[in-house]
Amino acid sequence: MSLQPLSQLPQDPLTINRALLSVSDKTEIINLARCLHQHDVQIISTGGTAQKIREADIPVTDVSEITGFEECLDGRVKTLHPIIHGGILGRTSHQPDLDEMQKLDIDPIELVVTNLYPFKETIANPDCTPAVATENIDIGGPTMIRAAAKNFAHVGVLTSPSQYADFISELNQDGKISFPKRKEWAKQAFNHTAGYDNAVANYFNNLDNTEDELADQLNISLPKSHSLRYGENPHQKAAVYGNQSTFIDCFHGKQLSYNNYTDVDAALNFIADFWDSKPTCGIFKHTTPCGIACDDKLAKAWQKAFATDTMSPFGGIVVVNKELDLDTAKEIDEIFTEIIIAPSYSKEALNLLQEKKKRRLIRIKKLPNTENAIQFRSIFGGALSQDSDLKIVGKNELQTVTKRKPSKQEIEDLLFAWKVVKHVKSNAIVYAKDNQTIGIGTGQTSRVESSQTAIAKAQQERLSLENTAIASDAFFPFPDGVEAAAEAGATSVIQPGGSIRDDQVIKAADNLDLAMVFTGNRHFRH
């Protein structure tokens, strides 16, 4: 997109004579008002903001004194008046505007400070009703912000208390505000209102949607957290958006890279499914599990997970669902790992793990709320959207389709394998026994090849496949899949079912004395 040069706009430093302050979040507003007063700026304000400034013994003029019109409709109309918006939108470098403003008795307003009703915070409350939500839709605030940002050549606009210190520093230098600062604040202002409008639009999009529907329009607005050194590869530019610090604290080691973020996301999604399980350890590489295990002791869970594949974990990601203790830390510390993720760490474990400066240590502050999570993927001409795959199958939902029913131990192994296979890339095959992955086959174009990969890995690690359970993320289209599993030593199978040849697969399982259950749902992952 080609943009016209900014040289066509007035770029002189701006002297502020009048400022309009009307904020919902009053953090640091007194410090800002005091600075403005010290620079002989007339402060115009509304409602609670004016009251707070007045209580600090700082002179303030009510908007109604400027407009000659009192606030009305229970405060719904405060600043929506030509004298206010004329003062904000008037181009003081444009003589016809000045002439008209003089004729209408409109004085310029060179600074607008406002932030908006807390709509996002309001609707985040589960008890929020549509009536409460709509009362927290700001009208006057966005109108003033957009007006000031549009006229940034002549007006400054502040939309967050985080900007006040920068503004105060700038004003204290020579009593003026530079053009680059005004331009930057205008950009932030338009992003601020865009995000606010998106939140409101998304609320209404979802208000009447049933569980079977997704929104009619996709509105995404995420603030840039920071730039990354590069993307998936060094020649790709990259940045991270949103607020990851709500969920994790990377408190030791280098900044996370693009690939680190994707691995951490995969690890968090996995550990959420095992959060309430016995001590669990997952080892990931390129967003794919290398080994998963549960045990009464976390150190033992690590040993079992690592045993699945002792080669791939080097440079990988380790995630656990319990406090990481010294015994487990000692085990992990024997190999190079890029990232360790845990809800907490013992003091002794930290002392050991922090000796390696480049290793990243992450504390899980809270798990992402995946209940209503929507996933997106960019494609040609737009994006794909789907709700997250959150399905966890319980014992009572399993449908036994073979003559032999699975034993109690086999059911436990099958459910464990099924929870793991959900996080393996398709075509996905998992062999498991005693809450431990024995072999993982991932990403092959043939389901039999994925099974062969899992078998080969188990044999490479000298792990016995006898009496294992095998999980397949999608149905076996032919009997060869279960035949290969039985030949390897598996005694039970869990799969979605749904193939046109299910009867042939079931017959083959019966002939091999396998116990096979259907889940009725698939776990493709691409």
UniProtKB/TrEMBL annotation:
Pathway assigned to this chain's UniProt record: Purine metabolism; IMP biosynthesis via de novo pathway; IMP from 5-formamido-1-(5-phospho-D-ribosyl)imidazole-4-carboxamide: step 1/1; Purine metabolism; IMP biosynthesis via de novo pathway; 5-formamido-1-(5-phospho-D-ribosyl)imidazole-4-carboxamide from 5-amino-1-(5-phospho-D-ribosyl)imidazole-4-carboxamide (10-formyl THF route): step 1/1
InterPro entries on file: AICAR_Tfase_dup_dom_sf, Cytidine_deaminase-like, MGS-like_dom, MGS-like_dom_sf, PurH-like
Hydrolase as UniProt keyword: yes
Catalytic reaction list: IMP + H2O = 5-formamido-1-(5-phospho-D-ribosyl)imidazole-4-carboxamide; (6R)-10-formyltetrahydrofolate + 5-amino-1-(5-phospho-beta-D-ribosyl)imidazole-4-carboxamide = 5-formamido-1-(5-phospho-D-ribosyl)imidazole-4-carboxamide + (6S)-5,6,7,8-tetrahydrofolate
GO molecular function per UniProt: IMP cyclohydrolase activity; phosphoribosylaminoimidazolecarboxamide formyltransferase activity
Keywords for the protein's UniProt record, in alphabetical order: Hydrolase, Multifunctional enzyme, Purine biosynthesis, Transferase
One BP annotation, GO: 'de novo' IMP biosynthetic process
GO cellular component, as recorded: cytosol
PROSITE patterns found in the cross-reference section: MGS
Enzyme Commission code(s) on record: 2.1.2.3, 3.5.4.10
Record-linked Pfam families: AICARFT_IMPCHas, MGS
Similarity comment: family membership: Belongs to the PurH family.
Protein name (record): Bifunctional purine biosynthesis protein PurH
Organism: Fodinibius salinus
Gene: purH
